[in-house]
Structures
1.
Amino acid sequence: DDMCILVKANNDSEFIKKACQARHIPVSIQRSKGLYLQTEAIQFEVILSALHQPQHKARVHNALSTLFFDYAQVNPEQLSEHHKQRLKQQWLQLLQWAKAGQWVALFDWLLNGSGSRLRAEKSGNKRQLANLQKIANTLLHYAMQHHAGIADLLRFYKKLRLTAVELNEDDQNQDTDDQAVKVMTMHGAKGLEFPVVFLFDGLTGPRQNSPYQKFYHEDIQATVYDVSKQSKALQQAAYRKEFKQLYYVAMTRAIFKLFVPYLNMKSKRNYADYQELIIDNIDQCQQADLTADSRPANLTLAAPAGKQLTGEQPESQEPLPFSQAPAHLSARSRFVHSFSSLSQHWVNAGETTELHRYGDIEKPSDEPFQHDQVMVHQPLIPGGVTTGHVLHGIFENVHFKDVWSHDGLQTLWADQVIMAVVDAQMQQFKLSNQRIKAELAEDTEALDYRQQLAAWVWHSLRKPLPMLNGQSLGLIKPEDRRHEMSFHWQHQDRQLTGYIDLLFRINNPQGGHDYFILDWKSNINDAGYEPQVLAETVMQQHHYVLQYQLYATAVDTWFQHLGLNNARLKGALYVFSRGVQCHADDLNGIYYHEFSDLAAQNKRTQQHIMQLTEA
């Protein structure tokens, strides 16, 4: 699980998988599509739709063509009368169970009686089997808990699939849950980290025989398909920009070691961008004198360098021996923890005592999503990691004072500079702009996602805050705030790392500064956004109290090392932008905790960290 191979396209994953399996290396392919976009999820909906409308012959025909029936791939005209009669009996039995609400029998047959489990096991398709079990258990749990009929169950499942896709839910997207080398696309690796990363491909460029030229045009904010092939220069510029962004993401996924393809020869077959940005820079590094910066702390523990890979084939086909591992390696290893890893370990404490390793995809986002959860209120913009990244990016890159200076949303939306920041973040994190649904029009003035995101930022930055003596965040000067501030905190042999969304300061009456930790949140909270409700729901559910306690310990330790006598870390501020209305008299969307006894709190936090990391 500590190793990951990144590919540009899903098609490359199968090549890697076959190569690893031939060498008996366990491998797991991370799919870009989530559970509810997989074939198994679609076929469950086909079955439920046909059971709901058995008089619809086309739906029944589609249901009998799913993987649950052993003659699904056979042309119905080629089936014998015996086989046709058997299919009919199976379908009538499913209908009888559905009408009687005998859901245990129905889902047991779909998994076991139909032979779908046996066929998946024989073919070695562990992921298909896991998907079938997960979906069947979710449907059975809902049906039994709510005494649901077939119409209710179908309605729940459709809404579940839609909600999971909108929230960018990507559960159960591996071939196997066993420990293995992970293979995923470079796009899919965004936000993840692994100790060792291998990049696959890059030496060859995009295909040149396409019947059209496809690229993203920034001026019109849309994807262009040019069948006349007159846009080669624009296409190449777009490809080059995307290539740089993609490989920046891919190369920064490695924590300790990164392996990239390298061919030590000039060739017309080499992709020019890869040659210039990767290979040429490697050549320059080899020629430079980097010994002073790259020398190990103890040369006696360092392994000898391996043989250099070149474009020439070795004379001997025997595999190269591995280099000798450094001595006392286990004693030199260290766990580097973060809020994500600690909170996830806390959540799973009742299930396992094993710490999650680097690269685990079950990292908590702003909005962890449960499969049996159905939203009471439909959000203006779907929640999930993507929306959170976009909102964070806007706050990080927009000029606070420019946003604060607008008296209304109409002038804000007409500000091209501000809206360009919104557009850039939506493009970077692949959030497509969509119109606000008609049934939600009464809840907002915004017409689409980009306007709504800008509105959330505007309300958040213009809101007068009593903990800041009535000042708004939009008036905090650039020199008084630090965005995405990284930290590395160490206590005894425990190490903690992370990023704080915003650390800012205001003047206090004593002539010094009061510092505040701030975290931007995009959570959807059906219970509401009143401060007390936030404290009792989302702050507890997602362990955000632990988060600001860790941040406070790190920042206060830093202040002590700097000797800032007039600096006081006063409190933690959590801004849930979906709930903030700047003109309202309430503090909805704002959670604040003031550090009354920071020394005592930090001592408790240190003890808590030691307990959580004891494993």
2.
Amino acid sequence: MVEYLNRQVRLSRSVSGVNVLSVSPVIQSGFVREGFFLNALNLDVAVRTDGNGDSVSGTGLWGLEFFLSDRDDGSGARYDFLTSGLNSIQASTAIAAGSTESITGVFSTVDLRTLTCPQVPYICAELSKGNNPNPDFLLTGSLVGCTAIDCRGVVIVDSQLQFSSPPVLVERSSVNSLTFDFLLTSDTTGGSVMGDDLWNLVWYLSTEPDDTGMTQVIPVSLTSQQSGLDLVAGTPGTIRSVNAQISTLPLTCSEFGYICVRLEKNPSASIDFTLSASNDQALSDCQQVTCRGVEVTNLRPSYSPEQIRSGQNNFLMFSLDVFTNSGGASVSGTDLWMVEVFTNTNSNGDGTSLDGFSIKTSFTYCSFLYIELFVIFCSINHCYHTNRLSEPGYHRWHHIDLKQHPSNLDLTSATCSEIPFICVRLSRNQFSNPDFTLVDSNGDQDIVQCQQYPCEDPSPCENNFCQNGATCVVQNDGFTCICTNAFVGQFCGTVNPCFQTNACNGNGLCTPLGLPGLLVCTCTNGFTGVNCQVPPGK
């Protein structure tokens, strides 16, 4: 009876065979890359068996087949079947029941020319009997096991935006055109990609060189040659001569300082691939731009009358010619400009504006004039106006009659030497709609043009204080009256007592003393006396 039972146990175990509980591939070395045919992997495959099953030892026992899968248990579709040619030692690995044994040093290759990493994140091993196992045996259980693979797509480590000359953009313009090259460097251990319509480029403006503070992202139109750039791992590639139409609407120069370009994968690429970056900035690059606003090259003011006079109020008529750079920005809107007319001690307008000697008006906001949409703004010391400058180039502003507001240059207590220059300052109205940048040809926002205004001081003889036909002669800062023979005194208002009289009896020189009837005789030929009436020797 005992012998019978032992025989039945042996028969039961023989029927169960080698029962595999798990197959676990372990990658010892290697990784796989998109776009490569021979991705080499070195694996060990651990086989854990049921202790109630059989053990097996012999030759040619095992076969292994590898495949790629999108599931960690190997279920579902299988990709790229890889039958591994086990050597005689690997194929003859003995496995004892209830143990875990490894088939080591298994070499396999993976073809990722048409597959991407997200499609096949796992490599799976399926254990089978060898073609001619010795001894033959029954193999059952879970024969498939998977492990994640180190799969690498195209990895960009650096990109560079290059211009042949420094980039220039005009603010608030839709017609900026820039041509650039975009240089790419990929990781030598990453994947490669070859095909058509692989790439997209997008541009955006930014306030910072690291592309923070970015504006709306706009696609760049690429040619088929540019978008089809093949990129081999570790080999630099360049998307050349890209022409981008850059719109800066509605931004002003203060709202951006850099143009940035970023590489993206084209969703319509002829071959699928994975694109990643080694760091946050590897796919994009920014370059500083020169921004141009409205650029005034010259102001040419003119005033009427052509000459002013000190000692009085001078009512002025003012007009202004404005010259702008054709390469600068245009602006159109309302309440755009502010003009200030003022006196100054320096020819560049940065000296002293003399109190009491500025253009004076009452404080008022004047109504719109419908020609060219210009508006006048007046304050207690200056007069301002706004106007539309719709296209770059030469613009003559409409004639402005400051007298109407009213305006005058009050020089009642000044001389011409105290107001050497009269200046005009053009600036952007703080209430302008839209906002814009206004600079001169040197980039300065303070646009001032000064000139010497012909000025005449009143003549000291203008009021002609000289009397009785006397002649007034200007002398230094004053005047002198040249009297006729019949009158004397500072203003020739006193009758000359020596005129047509014989006050010195013909015996001396008569000199008037400047007061009525007062004179002195200077006697000659020995005569004496108050009137030289005493003969010599008497």
